[in-house]
């Protein structure tokens, strides 16, 4: 039969059906079915997990938790049998203890450490379902949570991860999650080139886990953290998405406190407390007390203390402006309303800022849950190796975040390093700007004034009214200036040839310092590093804003930099043999203790107690007032 005759035949059947009400009904039904089928095919093709560069079309499932009303009855979700079983375990790494290696094992361990940036040799010695200490506040043990909670898809991207470390992450999720809440675990293999990430991993999964609850995706090329997470999110069927790094361990009863706030309000993003797993011996340690995450204007992650009223008691979730990003939960519905991750961002960097800003500015809330604990093994930039790029993708990602969400405040970032930021091509951000407009998101001013109102005080975009600034030149040898010497946190600093001995206000990354209103000496262009007194030497340490070992003063008359409480009478001195900066008893006649700043604010220094933040040491404060120093 020719095509023409087929068309004529179909037209005849349609006109015949249209002659009767029953025929019209049948035709309408078939049209509807055809429409549904075609739409399903289009959506399925578009939403393929591997098509991460395409916008995801989210259709809320008919069985979605948020389509139904739920009771407010609460229950104890603790698995007492599992807790009792783990309490009796002993062996290497059990109860979260670290493993110490014999001298003959150190060489083999060092090679593995260099390759993976953590001690995979130690990991292999520890049971993959090891027991952990309960690091929660005591009140969490009696805490009840809603008896009806949404289901969860746990998404774990990985690239060349040590098999024992990766499978320990999976074990911790299965062993410490209520089965009725754990919909699935989605593993996203980001194009690993290690054999154990394929056959051996699949064999292990088949042997130890419910294969009906495990999905394994394999990326066709090296994609990086964000795209791997997006692939997992596109494949997820749970009401809530939990993103986890592949070197983490979920602790006791971690899931109910993590997802209950999301059950109550789907526009909530929740992070657990992140405990610390040692990269050298796998010891599991508590995160300690809660802090609120923020950032400084160089896009480094920072912490602020909790404010009065943030918690009624230590078990309550509290608001946090910026997530750490290694583990968090968010409803699939809200995640896709926000557009997921910006698909124009690549590989690694900036994703926690982008999502945090979107949550807060687009009518959501972000919480930290003290009763949910997950250990995280910190290692240097896990997604950087084996990714070949010809551009600075991290700064490009940050600039995309700034351009879309930070409004006029983006200039505060760019002005920190104009030569780096202004010429940088950040690509097309129209999709995310359309999301921002569609959701009627708030301006970034709301974030600074309402969400993190104390951030600007601790991390101002511009340091105004500093006591002194610039390079710090040795009077004993004017060719030498204080230099960070590339030191990391906790390492000593010293002196080095002055970069600009005749212009001490000129900015050089390792020789630019500020004696700030906080009464500390801040390293300009650093990751919030300050001078700190450690065992009689001056070292770098994260700025604490509480003075103490980071309390410094400059005496205009004697040119000495005094450190610590005034009653200790300690001054900074250069050790000419080691070229390190040490502390010694102040001696006005000792030229090794004399320093010249690039700029000094004479008025502020002469009225030390009238400017800047309050002096926290009460004895020091009285000394200053009494001596009018």
From TrEMBL:
One GO biological process term: protein O-linked glycosylation
Matching InterPro entries: GalNAc-T (IPR045885), Glyco_trans_2-like (IPR001173), Nucleotide-diphossugar_trans (IPR029044), Ricin_B-like_lectins (IPR035992), Ricin_B_lectin (IPR000772)
Catalytic activity, EC: 2.4.1.-
Pathway(s): Protein modification; protein glycosylation
Cofactor: Mn(2+)
Keyword set, alphabetical order: Disulfide bond, Glycoprotein, Glycosyltransferase, Golgi apparatus, Lectin, Manganese, Membrane, Signal-anchor, Transferase, Transmembrane, Transmembrane helix
Coiled coil: none
GO cellular component, one term: Golgi membrane
Membrane topology per record: Single-pass type II membrane protein
Signal peptide: none
Cellular location(s): Golgi apparatus membrane
Keyword Manganese: yes
Main localization of the protein described in the UniProt heading: Golgi
Spans traversing the lipid bilayer: 24-43
Any Pfam family hit: Ricin_B_lectin
Top-level division of the source organism's lineage: Eukaryota
Ricin B lectin domain: residues covered: 469-598
A Gene Ontology molecular function term of the record: carbohydrate binding
Entry's family note: Belongs to the glycosyltransferase 2 family. GalNAc-T subfamily.
Protein's UniProt name: Polypeptide N-acetylgalactosaminyltransferase
Organism expressing this protein natively: Chironomus riparius
